[in-house]
Each structure stands twice: as structure tokens, then as C-alpha cells.
Amino acid sequence: MAGGRTSASAPLISVIVPVYKVEQYLADCVASIVNQTYRNLEIILVDDGSPDRCPELCEQWTERDDRIRTVHKANGGLSSARNAGLDVAKGDYIAFVDSDDTIEPDMIETMHRWIREHDGVDVAMCGTVKVFDDGHEDHIDAALPNKVFTRANALRSFLYHYERMASAVWNKLFDARFFRGTEAIRFPEGLNSEDYFVLSRVYNTMGGLYFSAKPLYRYRIRENSITTASVNEHSFDKARIAELCCEYLESQGYGDAAALAYCRMQGWYDVLYDLLGKRADAAAIRRCRKALARTVPPVLRDRSLSFGRKARILLMATTPRAYHRISSRSTR
């Protein structure tokens, strides 16, 4: 059937959905995109070699709505699937939706309006609601104010992990130019935490970003997803990606050494915190603690950081198990 009526002047927006082993969630995800109030959509379902019924379900959706196309490929991971979608996308804007999540009916229309209403803005970002298996929800951006970010303050907040700038690609709408031409941005294949890699490049080349905490993206937290899996070969990827982001920005002449040092530290801090939570073996913990300790000295000299933040970093680098026990209790 047709995808619905839309204004002839409305730009085409491509929505890329990587699909892998989400048979029970796919219908809700795709329905939430199909039913968007913004109708001029190109919906690209990328079957990443899924071993369940997802390939068949994708084809069924393609037959039901002429705005949907399915790309079938051998399994290569999330970055590979998103890249396959980018390679065929024709839209003027690009959005990403993970196939176990859903979006509010007006998400695309609202973020497109935000870009139109703010001069120089070519990225929009909405608020996120975490949806847990037990049914409870958490609007994680609720306390943040609406704000227009320039390149400079977006990069600084990204490197310091402030103001949700170090988040994900799926709660954003991007001008498609970031993913076209000789400098086309692509996701790093074979690594998790790939969104940071892309965002460092988008923020460095964008005109501006408009953020509103309006909760339009619904992010499902489920056991055994990429972000909740146990210790594996990707357990150190956050540190690897942090280093790649810093190397890229340095190559582009970015000069805030303190912010770069903090980003490198935060990569190892996050890895160590995750490993402690997953009760990794002593050798992995020791390796990570030593790597974190090497990144700490310049951070302790950073006058922009509070004493309390520096104390927490130092405790993680020196007595990680004790610090993790205390901090995990305080967040329950």
C-alpha cells in the first residue's frame, strides 16, 4: 500500500533500521516508524544476516508499505548494517532507529521542524526514555534545558561527557551531507560504542545542534543486548573508540588538551566500571586499572573539574573494587 500523503515540498527523510535477532520486537519498531506524522519517509530495513524470522518479516513490511525497502546482507554487526543503509539512502536527512526500540508518532516531524526553525542548525536531538523489561521507565534527559549547541560547545561537552552530547545516533536527525561525498562519515566496523566515533566527526563539521528534552525516543533495555552482554571481545571498545575520537580531533587541529585528556580517561573509566559490574577476571581488571591510572594525572590538573569528580576518578584508578561497590549501591 502507499505510505500516505505528504506535501510535495517536504524533503525525503531516510530512516535506517539495522535488524538482527529481534523477531519479537520488530513489528512494534517498524509500526512506530510507518505511523509517523511526517509521511515523506524512506524506511530502510537492513537484515544483518539475522538467523530468525526477521528476514521474512522485513519482506512482509516491504510488501505492506511502498516507503519500505529491505537490504539483506551477511552478518557484520551494527556498524556494518548501518553503513549498508547509508550506502543506499537517498534522503535529505538521515535518522537511525534500533530495531528493538520505538519512536513517538511525531518524532521525525518534530525534529525536522527544530532544524528548520533554528538558523545554522543541521542536527536535532530529542530526549530519551529508557524502557525496562519490568515495565518501569526513566526519562533520562528530563532535567536538561533546551539548547542550541555550536561546534565548539558540542565538542567540549562530548569530550567531557556533559549535557548528553556523548550519547547515541538514534535520538537525532542529521543533515544527509555528513554521510555523502568524499568525506562521507561511516561507522567503524568491528567495534561497539561506534556512535561516539560518528558523533565526534559530525560535531566537528556541523553548523549547530538543537537539543530538546522532549521524550520522543523509547530505548528498550533488555538482557543480552550489545550494551548489557557479559565480558567479551568488545569489552574494551569504549577505550578504543575514545582514542580514535581523540586522534581524529587532534588531526583536525582541535586544541583543547584538557578535554582530550578527559575523554581518554573516561574511556578507560567506563571500561573498568563495566568490567567490575560483570565480575571480570583479575587480570582484565588489573590491565584496565593500570591503563586508567596512566590517563589520570592530566585530568587531576584540570581546573575545570570539581574536587569531588577528581576524587572519584582517583578512587577508581587506585581502589576500583571498593569504589565500585560504594558507587553501585548509591545508584540503586
From TrEMBL:
<dbReference type="InterPro" id="IPR001173">
    <property type="entry name" value="Glyco_trans_2-like"/>
</dbReference>
<dbReference type="GO" id="GO:0016757">
    <property type="term" value="F:glycosyltransferase activity"/>
</dbReference>
<dbReference type="Pfam" id="PF00535">
    <property type="entry name" value="Glycos_transf_2"/>
</dbReference>
<feature type="domain" description="Glycosyltransferase 2-like">
    <location>
        <begin position="14"/>
        <end position="179"/>
    </location>
</feature>
<keyword id="KW-0808">Transferase</keyword>
<keyword id="KW-0328">Glycosyltransferase</keyword>
<dbReference type="InterPro" id="IPR029044">
    <property type="entry name" value="Nucleotide-diphossugar_trans"/>
</dbReference>
<protein>
    <submittedName>
        <fullName>Glycosyl transferase family 2</fullName>
    </submittedName>
</protein>
